[in-house]
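Q: Hi! Curious about what 5-deoxyglucuronate isomerase looks like structurally. Here's the sequence.
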Amino acid sequence: MIRLDVTPESAGWGYSGLRIVELAAGGGEYSCSTGGDEVVVVPLSGSVAVTADGEKVQLDGRDSVFDGPTDVAYVPIGAGLTLRSDTGGRFALATARATRRLPVRHIPVARQRIEMRGAGNCSRQVNNFATTDVLDADRIIACEVLTPGGNWSSYPPHRHDDLEEIYYFEVAGGGPGYQRASGVREVRSGDVVLIPDGWHGPSMAAPGYDLYYLNVMAGTGERAWVIEDEPEHAWVRDTWADQEVDPRLPFGKGLHR
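A: Let's find out. The predicted structure is below.
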């Protein structure tokens, strides 16, 4: 079952997309053609077998987004794609319109860059699985960010006007989170915020409610994550050198700062 479907057409832009698929336990399946989109399959909960271009990639997945990083799969344009899950679960298909065709790939956690970014109440964990330093792709850039309750991430506010960005949120315990873009809005599990351009951030985790978001980015220029901090707040970065990383990080067994 498709729970969410953001396409470039529905978003009113040119490249970035996101689909959330829910599969039943006992062999639930979902099939589609990737068409003109390259795809990164990200298990949000559960494990899944990804079949494309005659290749099968088994993703171990995780129980929830707060239980640590997950392995992911890259699927190119022009492929038939099938997901099949024995455990059941929810799976994100992060997409970008592309022209260069690359092979199917499995990106295990060991090949990802798990980063503790910021310090103090700006501490957050970034799981880089489809960033430019981890995955060779045509246009897509994707990562996930986990913010302990009471902390801010996507801060200082910044912009990257050549990249269209999707934020997909989940909040532990059913609580609220908050996102500043053009104004501040409350977000809950399953919500998305679209950032076509302009200043955005922070993403705010309410005290007691850890915040997760999946970022999907793509655009017209070179595949690079180049940001500009909002000048009024850029000084905040300089304060991190004198602070410790939040001891609640990292999320996930076996991970160390």
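A: A fun detail: The chain has a mean pLDDT of 97.
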